[in-house]
Amino acid sequence: MLSGGQRQRLGIARAFLKDAPILILDEATSALDTESEAEIQAALDHLMRDRTVLAVAHRLSTVIGFDRIVVLQDGRVVEDGNPAQLRGHGGVFDGLWQRQAAGFEQAAPDAS
């Protein structure tokens, strides 16, 4: 039996082999630890190049390099723009980004 992370890796490998012009990702890095996520994200960045990508993501680091992000809340589109636009105006995406970034800072080892 495969773990969640192994199933995700297998799905990504299939996407590489299929070479489809449209890629659909549903929480592509959700079952991965931070180190594995970085490796898979690098592979996904290569895979997504010159393709249309529809991605569902709660880890915003997965979509920060996208050209366009559509933010849904309660089934409705509440924001639409590129990451820089969405991070700069205090909306839903920006609030989520700030909370996730705060989590990254809390998890970082103390340098003092």
TrEMBL record:
Signal peptide residues are: none
The identity of this protein, by name, is: ABC transporter domain-containing protein
Species of origin reads Xanthomonas arboricola pv. pruni str. MAFF 311562
Q: Lineage from the top down?
A: Bacteria, Pseudomonadati, Pseudomonadota, Gammaproteobacteria, Lysobacterales
Alphabetized Pfam families for the sequence: ABC_tran
Ranges for domain ABC transporter: 2-30
GO annotation (BP), single: oligopeptide export from mitochondrion
Cross-referenced SUPFAM superfamilies, in alphabetical order? P-loop containing nucleoside triphosphate hydrolases (SSF52540)
Which Gene Ontology terms cover its molecular function? ABC-type oligopeptide transporter activity; ATP binding; ATP hydrolysis activity
* Bilayer-crossing regions: none
Under InterPro entries, the record lists: ABC_transporter-like_ATP-bd (IPR003439), P-loop_NTPase (IPR027417), Type_1_exporter (IPR039421)
